């Protein structure tokens, strides 16, 4: 299933995204310049890229359907809803 189809399917499913925390809702771009869309607990959607900070944590990697954030004890992996 294509990434766009996965996002479209997940968008119509109930309880796929926990609304009370940061959630990854999409990844896009080239291998050299990946971007992600994240949803904050406030409902705000933000486009982010490698090296930027989101929710106070630095983005260390963005892959196909996943994003890694630097934490005090290592990294935290965010994944898109499975749909």
List the helices and strands and how they pair.
Layout: H1 3-11, E1 23-29, E2 34-39, E3 45-49, E4 53-54, E5 57-63, E6 66-71, E7 74-79
Antiparallel strand pairs: 1-2, 2-3, 4-5, 5-6, 6-7
Protein name: Pilus assembly protein PilP
Structure characteristics:
mainly beta; 7 strands; 47% strand; three-stranded antiparallel sheet; single chain; 1 helix; 83 residues; four-stranded antiparallel sheet; globular; SH3 type barrels
Structural account:
This protein is mostly beta strands. It has one domain (3-79): SH3 type barrels (Roll), CATH 2.30.30. It is 11% helix and 47% strand. The chain is built from one helix and seven strands, in the order H-E-E-E-E-E-E-E. It starts with a helix and ends with a strand.
Distance between the termini: 11 Å
Helix content: 10-25%
| CATH topology label | SH3 type barrels
Total DSSP helices: 1
| Total strand segments | 7
Topology order in helix (H) and strand (E) letters: HEEEEEEE
Shape descriptor reads: globular
Low-confidence blocks of residues: none
* β-strand amount: over 45%
Radius of gyration: 12 Å
Mean pLDDT: 86
Which structural class is indicated by helix and strand composition? mainly beta
CATH architecture: Roll
Oligomer: single chain
* CATH secondary-structure class: Mainly Beta
Strand order across the largest sheet: 4-5-6-7
The biggest beta sheet is recorded as: 4 strands, antiparallel
What is the total domain count? 1
């Amino acid at each position: 299933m294509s990434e766009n189809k996965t996002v479209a399917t997940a968008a119509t499913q109930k309880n796929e995204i926990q609304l009370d925390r940061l959630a990854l809702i999409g990844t896009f771009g080239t291998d050299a310049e990946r971007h992600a869309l994240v949803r904050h607990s406030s409902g705000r959607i933000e486009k982010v890229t490698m090296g930027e900070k989101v929710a106070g944590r630095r983005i260390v990697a963005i892959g196909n359907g996943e994003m890694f954030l630097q934490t005090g004890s290592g990294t935290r992996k965010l994944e898109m809803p499975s749909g």
